[in-house]
Known about the structure:
This protein is an all-alpha fold. It is 70% helix and 0% strand.
Amino acid sequence: MRRDQELEGFIDLGMKKEALRLADEILACPRPRAREIEVALQAVGVFAHRSAYRSGTRRAKIETMIERLPKQARHMAGECLLLHYASVGDYQRAADFMSNAKRFSPQGFYFAVESLIGLDRLEDAVALAESRPALKRGFGDNDYECEALAMIASAKGDHLAALFARLNAPKDTPITRHVIEATAESALALVILHLGTHLQKAEEKRKAAASDSLELCLPGLQLALVEVELRSCERLRAKLRRLIPEASRPLYKLEP
């Protein structure tokens, strides 16, 4: 049995110790096959704790393995290396493997967009999306493409487009749960944005009511009503914002 097949079996059975042992063996190999690299990185992503990985020796092993790879092999393994680094939150290192991103699978495209947005490179993420012929019509064929387009729309502040992209996702991939959660976040962000616009108008009404000295019936009533409206909207906006995870708020241009 080939090593990549054996390692896939360990991953499927949840055999952490055996999977990481064989993954380390593959990473130490002078010239591992592309499929072996892909499965070894998958094992590390599944079983290695993120904080321990970032500060431990396994990261060094991966870096050493990458340095040993011939240029062509490194180019061919670019997508799985990007997937690995993006999945552990190292967007800066993931960006080093985007030279062939136009030809990535939908999953690779999704993680490339996530990495670029995480690095505040929105223009590059937009250019990458526009370089994929299948996405020129503005929506994707699978969860990965739909969610990538939604992330770009959210980063632009277009929460309605983000919500539309997520509602139209097929929801038939490993990230389906994330897409459903993000759909709810997009809807909440859209309502919060609408409340913000309403609050601006209410504030203008409050200033006008405060300067109106010609009220002949029940002086101050208009001002009191506007202030009640302002407080009610502020409380509602605060409640809705708390429903969006703190880590996700920057994506929707919401304060932490």
